[in-house]
Amino acid sequence: MTTGKRIAFCIAALLVMAAPPLFLNAYWVDVLNSVGLYAILGLSLNLIVGSAGLFNLGHAAFYAIGAYTAAILNTTFHIPILWLLPLCAVTAGLFALVVARPIIHLRGDYLCIVTIGVGEIVRIALINNVFGLTGGANGIFGISRPTLFGHAIRKPDEFYWLIWSFAAITIFLFHRLENSRFGRALNYIRDDEVAAEGCGVNTAHYKLAAFIVGAAWAGMAGDIYAAKMTIIAPESFSFWESVLMFTLIILGGSGSIPGVLLGAFLIIGLPEVFREFANARMLIFGAAMVVMMIFRTQGILPARPRRYATPPDPSCKAEAEA
Amino acid sequence: MEVFFQQVTNGLAVGGIYALIALGYTMVYGVLRLINFAHGDLFTMGGYLGLTLLTSFALTGRLGPLLGIIVLAIMVMGLVAIAGAALERAAYRPLRESPRLSAVVSALGASIFLQNAIMLIYGAKMMVYPQDILPKVAINLFGLYIPLVRIIILSASVIMMAGLYAFIQKTKVGAAIRAAAIDQGAARLMGINVDQVIMIVFLVGPGLGGVAGLMVGLLYGQVNFTMGWVYGLKAFTAAILGGIGNIPGAMVGGILLGLIEALGAAYISIAWKDAIAFLVLILILIIRPTGLLGERVAEKV
Asked: Which of B21, B12, B6 is nearest to B208 (CA)?
């Protein structure tokens, strides 16, 4: 795509995404808000799972750390919740640094199982009211509504703008990251770690960095979640949440931003559409995951291989002119 | 000391259950390098099938408690084994050549499917086992009163583990399983039907897991459709603790985890009981990733 086309595409996408609150009722706008939140979470996890190829099935832990940081500081010190965004990123990122540092060298499945363990420990710690801060199984309530430029955000429509603006920023930044030196290094590690190390990529460093950035972003998503719900409880950060985030990435197309967005729409949106089948929908969902993996392993919208324009060969040009 | 020994016997009984489930994980991992996330749900299935068979055939009433439970366990084992083999055929065999990530997602999908299938069939409420299956007696052992059910569970799991060990070590099929675990390609060249070996592994592992589900029903008197996930994760921890892919390792790991958990719950805090198991898992992976008995060096990369 040329730059002009790309800008046109971005404007068209923004216009399409801006339209729903104008004609949808509050319920469906709220569903789209959930989709947006999971899109942000999915993109943050995609950096770890999709770009760097590290199995992380405990992403809900980082999400929880962000949400609880926001909730605790907001309810005790009354700091406006959106101001806490950077702080939530820092706490979630630091937590990721502490837990991931000793386990980052572990191979695929082992890492997967350890992250599950970390996720569960965090959830149990929250239920057990660790340090007397987390409010136990009931969680924390009375989180204040976010305000933006003096305007309080309350209605689903208003949250729609907040969440999807943040999602747009996330998409832009992660797209830039994907095409940076950092993104290329992560892809190299995913595809062949030994070769990457041989070429001078500091694999442990990059893997850890991917973990921390992904976790920090999930922490910010946690802040927005806390602001949206005004009440948070450990049950919102169960293993199931991690599975949802993981599945939407794999289903949509691991390592591909459009894929992750589509995955968020399918995994969060479709069960809402099929509410009539209330009980059986998870059964179908599970079966669909298996069928999907058998027939389209790479996901619905897989990442396209990187393409680089080769610099024009001066000798060819000379021949053509001659 | 009374508390200590009671917790030890309790830990041994629960540990026996963990070990039986862990064997299923470790055998599958040994041959396929796949974490069978649906294994925990096959275990749940065992608990529910046991209840159905128990109430519909009144086995313990007709055959007497001990023989009745043995027949029941064999029936559950057979049915869950068939389910396990069917699962392998449907969800894992088509993915034999695919990347690891896809197999993991397929396993998660199968787990969600089975869990919800059980919920749709039996309902979301927990189900209670009849209380009169086993006589409620405690046996006096060196001045210590141990409930009969714990003794039965521990001895049954030890017998099954010994049987499995003999099967793996002494029979031709067992040798084929060991060979396929070391090198599938080479095993195939030696004339071993690896597909058949994998099928056998998926019969034996879930069979034992299903009996473990029945044991949980007998020990705690109730089953619920989500229990597979917690037991599955703990049993997987046990398998890693002992060294994954290593069959005696899964047995030792299971018993050890049961003991650690029971003593941790008694002396540290019952609220943190589940966290203790995961903490053990993380520490083991940091300090000794090959597990206690793991001889196979974890592959580089």
From this structure: B21
